[in-house]
Amino acid sequence: MIWNIGIVGFGHVGQGFARVLMEKREYLRRKYDFRYKIVGIVDRSKGSIYRENGLPLKRVIKEVEEKGEFVSYLQRMSVEDLIKSGNLDILVEAIPTDVRTGEPSMRYLRIALENGVHAVTTNKGSIARGYRELKKIADRNGVLLKFEGTVLSGTPSINLMRDALAGCEITQIEGILNGTTNFILSMMERGLSFEEALHFAQEKGYAEKDPSGDVDGMDAAIKAVILANVIMDANISLEDVSVEGICKISSQDIKEALQQGNKIKLIATLIKKGDEVAVNVRPEKISRDNLLYSVDGIENALLIHTDNLGRVFIRGPGAGGKETGQAVLSDVLAIHNHYFSRDLEPRIQAALFPIFSEQFHLLHGTQNSFS
Ligand code: HSE
What we know:
Helices cover 42% and strands 22% of the residues. By secondary structure, it is an alpha/beta fold. The chain has two domains: 3-152 and 322-360, NAD(P)-binding Rossmann-like Domain (Rossmann fold); 158-318, Dihydrodipicolinate Reductase, domain 2. It has a seven-stranded mixed β-sheet, with helices on both faces. Strands 9-11-10-8-12-13 form a six-stranded mixed β-sheet. Helix 6 runs parallel beside helix 11. The chain is globular, with a radius of gyration of 21 Å. It starts with a strand and ends in a 7-residue tail after the last helix. L-homoserine binds at residues 153, 178-180, 214, 219, 318-319.
């Protein structure tokens, strides 16, 4: 089977995904028997391109780098046209997030799932707002909805807790979920004022021109909502989270904390009690013996409290085009492996997924290709 993929949103993340796909084409084929074509890309400012038999990614990326917009294979195609072309197996959606409404990501994901197209999104707004609704649509249509890149970018978080920690009940999570604020606080520890650190973060490309979503804690809060709803089975929205950002943290606060052997970090805390999940995001003093103490700069981390394993700790990059592109790749491969894992015996695959297996066997000519 060759997966036909469409990309909506070709900014840092869309391009990051396209690059890792392109660079790893051979590796992905060898290791996972994963083959793909990018058939269409739609972007609000760059335009839309489509080619039924697959776009030449190298050329597309080069043209975008040089001209800032698509040049060849131009079409007047809307996202809806692309999804309904009948030529898509997977939609990758990486448009900017609207945390208040989740739109238009919600609408694109709905259309994809309703039309039997698997969806991978990095969009925090739609998953925080509409996870339950979208999951129902996906289940009803027999397709998968994946969103690893919404929290901790490429560092495993959602899939880690859902798959690798399956069977563990997760009772508490403490996390550094926002790279920009963690970077600013780390720079303030080195003597910069809040304004200087923010300016430095903007120069480095970590913080947006309008950094309010990060520094006021909303970005961390929306990620916490996703974790609460998806991992802890809550049904909360952004309005249920008590949020305090880092704008009021002064150089003096940072200095005093350091003198006491502590660091100030923006921490999201999720605590599950019965069916209730309490979530808050606020700056906290973190002592040296806390695993979150040494997570500096743009890194993110999760300290996960489980019943079967005790504490599990994960840290890694929390932002970036390539890093979030890796999250998308891991989701796309999870969809592929769901149907074509080399670990599943061919006869089990044939029984579970007769249509895909049939296509696969036609393509490869033998059932032994899986082993
Ligand atoms: N603005 C976010 C951060 C990007 O700084 O963590 C990743 O969601």
